[in-house]
Design goal:
This protein is 51% helix and 7% strand. The chain contains 14 helices and five strands. It has helices spanning 2-11, 13-25, 42-51, 69-76, 90-102, 128-136, 138-143, 145-160, 188-201, 208-224, 237-244, 249-268, 285-288, 301-311; strands at residues 56-59, 81-82, 109-113, 227-232, 271-274. The model has no long low-confidence stretch (mean pLDDT 91).
Length: 314
């Protein structure tokens, strides 16, 4: 019997080595063994909340996922925890808001993103049930191919000493040329972005089911004493003209959705901060936007961070 166990232990050596490698380089700090992680993956954000829950929470998609949290605390006067992650639909943001409210941890305030893109019935991704399964099943996390690929990528970046990348551009002459070599007044990424989201917006319609859930969340927050603020982040002007005006989204938002949010605000006490349709401190798209949705992390996002978290308590 002892001989069999020894042979089995030898056979399991590759498994031990893989697990040690995975623990060392998995980027999401799933097991809480690292001081912190820079990952904005949903599993990383939610595990960080489970390990050390904050009371002031940011929920949304990639437009809210990259705040300088030290600057946020400096402007607002209190620490915030960022739970926003790339590609989050309104459904997923509401699932996450309900998750934290059901967690049993104290929640004082939630900053929740809403935009013309997320209230679109054509963009209704639903990944939260799979995420919840991963959160309670460490084996499923360890065996997930995506997370193993991420660990390998982290290892390669470590070996190559690859610096972290941010969404910021110092644009050169080539960035102001289209595919045919014609000069553009703004850098090319601003023109590419409307084409990227066009197919999602072509048949744009209000997601009535998720808006109803949003109203329920507002009323729940009112009942539980949680301060809820909806924020509509800024978009580049050419997204408005080439997508929103093209498909009548601007009229629907201004005439239907925003009045509805304002009415719920009057009834529940939640706040609505609209930088999407009412303007913001972002006035130079070429410099302050990295692409049509995402602010440049050096030349735009800090400015809007100061405005947003300065407006939050007014």
């Amino acid at each position: 019997m002892l001989h069999i166990l020894k042979r089995l232990a030898v056979l399991l050596i590759p498994v031990y080595l893989w697990f040690a490698f995975f623990l060392a380089f998995e980027p999401n700090n799933y097991f809480g063994l690292k001081k912190q992680t820079d990952s904005s993956q949903p599993v990383a954000r939610v595990r960080a909340y489970q390990q050390e829950p904050g009371r002031s929470l940011i929920i949304g998609d990639s437009r809210l996922a990259h705040f300088d949290m030290d600057l946020v605390e400096e402007v607002s006067g209190r620490p915030w925890q960022n739970l926003a992650f790339g590609g989050a639909s309104l459904r997923e943001s509401l699932d996450l808001a309900e998750f934290v409210l059901d967690s049993g941890h104290e929640v004082e305030e939630i900053l929740l993103e809403v935009s013309f893109y997320t209230v679109n019935a054509g963009y209704d991704t639903d990944r939260f049930s799979a995420l919840e399964e991963t959160l309670v099943n460490p084996l499923a996390y360890c065996l997930n191919l995506e997370y193993n690929v991420n660990a390998l990528t982290m290892f390669l970046n470590f070996v190559r000493n690859t610096p972290d990348t941010i969404e910021s551009g110092v644009w050169g002459p080539a960035d102001y040329l289209d595919e045919e070599g014609n000069t553009l007044p703004l850098h090319r990424k601003l023109y590419e972005y409307p084409a990227l989201i066009d197919s999602r917006c072509r048949d744009w319609a209000v997601n009535e089911e998720q808006l109803a859930r949003l109203e329920e969340l507002a009323r729940r927050c009112q009942a539980e004493g949680v301060a809820l603020t909806l924020v509509l982040p800024p978009m580049a002007q050419n997204v408005r003209t080439q997508v929103c005006e093209k498909y009548g989204i601007d009229d629907a938002m201004l005439e239907t959705v925003l009045p509805l949010l304002d009415r719920w605000a009057d009834e529940t006490g939640m706040a609505v901060l609209d930088y999407e349709w009412s303007g913001s401190c972002i006035t130079d798209d070429d410099t302050q936007f990295y692409d049509g949705f995402h602010l440049d992390e050096v030349y735009g996002l800090p400015d809007w961070t100061r405005q947003l978290f300065g407006d939050l308590d007014r």
